[in-house]
Amino acid sequence: MNHRICLVLLCGLPFGLMAQSLPGADSLTRLIRKTLQFVESQQVKETIPGYEFAGEWPSEMQMKSPYPLLGKHRSYDSNCFSLAATLNILADVYTLDTSLKAIPKLMDKAYPQLMSYVSKDGFNFWPLLPPGGSLSWYRSTDYRQRVRRPIQFPILNTYIRRAANVMNDNDDTAQALLALLRYERLLGIPIPDSLRNLSFHSYRDTLRDNRHYYNHFAFVPYNTGAFLTWRGEERFFPTHDLVLLAINNALFLTPLSTAYPKAYTPYMPYGSNDIDAVVNANVLHYLTEVQRYEPGIYGAAQFIHRKVHLKRYSKAGVYYPNRYHLHHAVIKAFKSGANELKPSVEQLIKHLKVSQKSNGSYHSRWLVNRRDIDQSTLYALHAMLMAGSMKETGLQPQIEKALHFLLSRLSVSPEQACLNGGVYFSGGTVIRNTLYWSSDAYSTALFLHCLTLIRAQTAEPNSAPNR
Questions:
Q1: Parallel, antiparallel or unpaired: strands 147-148 and 411-412
Q2: Nearby residues of 139 by Cβ (< 8 Å), 6 or more positions away
Q3: Cβ-based neighbour number of residue 6 at 10 Å
Q4: Using an 8 Å Cβ cutoff, are 426 and 369 in contact?
Q5: Treating both helix axes as pointing N-terminal to C-terminal, what angle do 25-42 and 102-115 enclose, rounded to 10 degrees?
Q6: Does the model's pTM come out above 0.90?
């Protein structure tokens, strides 16, 4: 599906679908079936050791330009975030349309792989695998031990192999727990007792002298009370001292630096925790759905408000360079019941109204995958639909134009339709605009949810959904 052909010719949809208006229920239903068929066809059928895992959906880990110690590669990747995020989207689709019987089957096949990312007090980003090469310049490597690492991406030096063994994080933990909550509600699979009561308040930005350099130069105040990204202990370092900070960073590749990784030990990048607005929105989303109060909720909301008030849409997420991922995550959390986010949602809606291009698209910065146009438009469209009734929000013109643009970008065949995946995650900090993850299945699933939301909003009152 690497070609783009007019949707009217291949899908047999009415010409009105391509006009600047919302399509009818029949046209939407046919397109929903096609996009779901693509997502279904993409799910991995069987595990091939060292290559892929059954139940997951393909994602790509890629370097857009060469970088020291990382090179320039593009490889298949297995990770918790893309799996859990895709599962959550599909669960939302099924909640809107229970006639889509393929979705519970897809979720059932993915469950074992989702659970494989469990690690002590949370979920990890990467699978647990034997070391992908030597972990020391002067000691032998024990390949019987397991570390967290990418399944295919080639890492050619010992330093990055050690650094890739990251610790658990709040982002993957929130997304995976949310998926488990959907398994319980929709499929009747109970959340394991060991995971049901996992909390986030132990990992908050309180009484810390540390400051991640990205947050430092973004003028993030101390003790925000917001949720931190990594679920582990950071190495003490007084980052308010710019001289010491410069020395520490200059020694980055030596054991004298707090950022130095050790073999087999779960690693916190740079040795210092960070605060990410999108991560905080994702944590709020889960806590709201599970109806659990934790002390960090207020701090998370205030941190997000600060970023939105300052219009830091492109830089609010340490690991999310797409400008509209913030809109997508914050409005989605608000829709789940996080009313603390209402002031931010109102400003984000205003921004969505004024930042759309004349052709219906939305753009990120040029550095982000050449403006990451398709993914930016997809996130913007989903955020607008999640914000509420399009007539009440006043976003119907923008929604119609964004949908029209994305329809023109579909790759199609007689049986399937998909969107090319854009940036949904990045390596963060210095490689924030260089190391990206993308997934056609994830992006197409999100577009599928947009279509079901549009159909639900435009259905005739007091009538059953057109199935």
A1: unpaired
A2: 263
A3: 12
A4: no
A5: 30
A6: yes
Are the beta carbons of 454 and 28 closer than 8 angstroms?
A: yes
Cα separation, 387 vs 193, whole angstroms? 34
Q: Is 45 exposed, middle or buried (0-12, 13-18, 19+ CB in 10 A)?
A: exposed
Cβ atoms of 141 and 153 within 8 Å: the answer is no
Q: Return d(Cα 295, Cα 292) in angstroms, integer.
A: 10
Q: Which two tokens stand for residue 309?
A: 């008030």
Listing DSSP states for 374-396 in one string gives HHHHHHHHHHHHHTS-HHHHT-H
Q: How far apart are CA 269 and CA 263, in angstroms?
A: 14
- CA-based end-to-end distance of the chain: 26
Q: What local confidence, expressed as pLDDT, does residue 7 receive?
A: 39
Tokens 């520490």 -> residue? 248
* pLDDT tens digits along 294-306: 999 999 999 999 9
Specify burial of residue 291 (Cβ count, 10 A radius: 0-12, 13-18, 19+): exposed
Q: Is the pLDDT of residue 10 over 50?
A: no
Q: How wide is the angle at C-alpha 214 spanned by C-alphas 209 and 218, nearest 5°?
A: 90
Burial of 261 (0-12, 13-18, 19+ CB in 10 A): buried
Contact assessment for residue 73 and residue 156, using Cβ atoms and an 8 Å cutoff: no
Structure tokens at 434: 């260089």
Residue type, 154: P
Q: Residues 124-133: pLDDT tens digits?
A: 999 999 999 9
